[in-house]
Amino acid sequence: MLKNILAVTGKPGLFKLVSHGQNMLIVESLLDGKRMPTYARDKIVSLADVSMFTTGDDLPLSEVLTRLGKKENLKAASIEPKKADNDELRAYFATFVPDFDRDRVYPSDIRKLIQWYNVLVNAGITDFSVEEESEEGAEAKVEEVKAEPKAEKRVARNTAAKTSQKAAGKSAAKTGVGAKKG
Prior knowledge:
Blueprint: E1 5-8, E2 15-21, E3 24-29, E4 35-39, E5 44-46, E6 51-52, E7 59-60, H1 61-72, H2 86-94, H3 107-122, H4 132-175
Antiparallel strand pairs: 1-2, 1-5, 2-3, 3-4, 6-7
């Protein structure tokens, strides 16, 4: 489920991937349900690709959210991330991820995680698993969207260049410029 949930840099909240168009993705906000396009210039990250630093291997966000969901019984977080101070956030986070790397996981990361969790729960999304099959399909769709416009531009450039060469050749033949004397 997390593969279709996206975070867009510069835009508040989380978004669900609805469709893709030429050179863009259509996303729907989980906060207010409004749909909008996102373009290649926007930094878009799937929640399935995010992980948290631990003292061992990095922990995928799906596992972190599952642990948080078990702690909170799939209800909104019991701590208010904007009002809590840094020590409270670290202590709260340590209750469900005790081996997190205290040097590389900042309080702002924990705030963002709790905000994302609350948005997902309020939107009715409590399945934090990552779908393996749709991952390949979604990546292929994104690659398709990125590849199509470049191919069209090349075709247009080549056609324009050939047309101008043909026109230049015809006018040269009519005026005799560049023609061989025989």
